[in-house]
Fold this sequence. Notes:
The protein is mainly alpha-helical and 223 residues long. It has 11 helices and 2 strands; from the N terminus they run ααααααααααββα.
Amino acid sequence: MNIRRTVTKALKGQADQRFDIIASAFEEDAPATMRVLQMHVYAPITQIDRWQAIETIGQLTEKYAPENDELFRNIIRRFILQMCEESANVPWASAEVIGTMLAHDSKRQFVEFIGPLFYHAGLNEICYPGLFWSYVQMAPRYGDEMQEFLAKALPFINYHEAEARAYAAWAFREVPYAPAAEALEALLGDDRSFPIYENGALQEYVISDLAAEALEKCRAAAK
């Protein structure tokens, strides 16, 4: 099997067949499969196959990490190190990759990386959108564990780039967090639109609309 060709073709192919094909590649050559998937995450946040690669990494984590701890743990470490780099493009997708792996951490074997994810993502603005996206993905499994870190992420809501604001508003609409309400108010006048990745597709949203919905839900959560 040509791992690179197989994985690349699967990412661009039918969604219902994607995971099974890539899982077969993983079982033949796990390190090579993970390397190819990581190659595809270094793309603009609006590129769909980037997100498909990220989601597949998460799915593989759930199925294979319990028996391949070192392989998956080293991938998390690699992306944390990338968030420490000063190069403008190195950290692309770091928060998303770590977030999807934690979201699929079925045995809770990577819980110690929650704090480093929030800390290092907070040091690099390019990671803000991915941190907010990861918050939503991780909430069902690690909602309680994230609470101590969320307050420090609130200033990122008002970062001037549209993608950070859109993902922040979307995140707190999906998983309300009462203390976020004040920061969300500042987004009510931002009528820029941006595509959000959800349910396997990119959906265009207006930031002010997302902020209004998120604000309502966060205020309700405070009662």
